[in-house]
Amino acid sequence: MGGVKSLWAMVQGDPVFMRRVNGWLAVFWIVMIPISLWMGWLNSVVYVSALSLWALVSGHWSAWQAARVEVQQQEDAKRAERRDVPEEVVQKILDRTDIQSNPST
User: Fold this and answer.
1) What is the pTM for the complete model shown?
2) Of 49, 50, 58, which Cα lies nearest the Cα of 26?
3) Any idea where the domains of the chain sit in the sequence?
4) Residues 53, 24, 59, CA angle at the centre, nearest 5°?
5) 12/95 Cα distance (integer angstroms)
6) pLDDT for residue 11
7) Cα 5 to Cα 54: distance, rounded to the nearest angstrom
8) Rg (Cα) of the chain, in Å, rounded?
9) Are 16 and 63 in contact, with CB atoms under 8 Å apart?
10) Distance separating alpha carbons of residues 98 and 31, to the nearest angstrom
């Protein structure tokens, strides 16, 4: 079970992979529209119920992913506010500069 959880965590942490998976799922469901009409599955209560459940789950999953992104953006903004960039620049200049006193004065 630990392997499945680590795989799930890795998949969720990779936005490129998630974008590709969601893109292919969208293409799959677009292709399924005419197939469902042609096969008469839209008259099936079971099929429509399963489709509704999938829509519900994917909608909540999308909202959850968006909320995760917003939380990360807020944390990044707070971190950026706390940084003292001018102080960091001055410290780097001082670290790279060799300042010696002039003995002739």
Assistant:
1) 0.53
2) 58
3) 1-42, 44-96
4) 30
5) 40
6) 67
7) 22
8) 27
9) no
10) 68
Determine the Cα angle at 39 with ends 37 and 44, to 5°.
80
Tokens of 52: 């509704």
In order along its 105 residues, the chain shows pLDDT tens digits of 677 677 666 666 677 888 888 888 889 989 998 999 999 998 999 999 998 998 898 888 888 888 888 888 899 888 888 887 788 888 888 888 887 767 665
The label of the residue with tokens 């519900």 reads 56
- Residue 12 exposure: Cα atoms within 13 Å on the Cβ side: 13
User: Which residues lie closer than 8 Å to 36 by C-beta, 6 or more apart?
Assistant: 42, 47
The residue with tokens 């799930």 is 8
As a whole number of angstroms, the distance between CA 88 and CA 94 comes to 10
